[in-house]
Design a protein that fits this description.
The chain is globular. The chain has 153 residues and is α/β, with parallel strands linked by helices. It has five helices and six strands; from the N terminus they run E-H-E-H-E-H-E-H-E-E-H. The longest helix has 20 residues. The protein binds 5-nitro-6-ribityl-amino-2,4(1H,3H)-pyrimidinedione. The site of 5-nitro-6-ribityl-amino-2,4(1H,3H)-pyrimidinedione (INI) has 16 residues, from strand 3 and helix 3.
Amino acid sequence: MKEYKGEFSGQGIQLAVVVSRFNEFISTKLLDGTLDYLNRHGVDTEQVSIFWVPGSFEIPLVAKKLAESNRFDGVICLGAVIRGDTPHFTYIAAEVTKGIAQTALQTGIPVAYGILTTDTVEQAIERAGTKSGNKGWFAAESVLEMISLLKQI
Ligand code: INI
């Protein structure tokens, strides 16, 4: 039997982070979590390029361009879609989720899903570095693990 597991080393890789300006007070916290994780795992600032987009809906297009560019080993997507009084939330959350999944499958590059989809602002705050951890931190962890795992295949 052979078992394969990804490692969490950031040596020699280049990463792109796509982050949404909409709900910026949350997405900057997600970005802080991502950069903190990467810094603790040996990734220098020169290995990270950050791309700001207007809203989460725009994330998949930029993520796809970056994944296709041959410049990056992985892409981390960060944003917060928070429910309002209309169905808008449902459409944006569905598109960004589907778009990120398709980008990874179509390009073969790990694309981490660091998008919060919450009913309330409070739930988003809890997942952006307060009592329920930081989704940006977990997205960074998953991208390092997936880059390492895919290299073994
Ligand atoms: N974008 C978000 O990232 N989060 C939201 O909660 C949100 N809501 O609710 O409207 C949102 N809208 C903007 C959207 O992502 C696009 O930027 C916009 O529709 C222009 O294409």
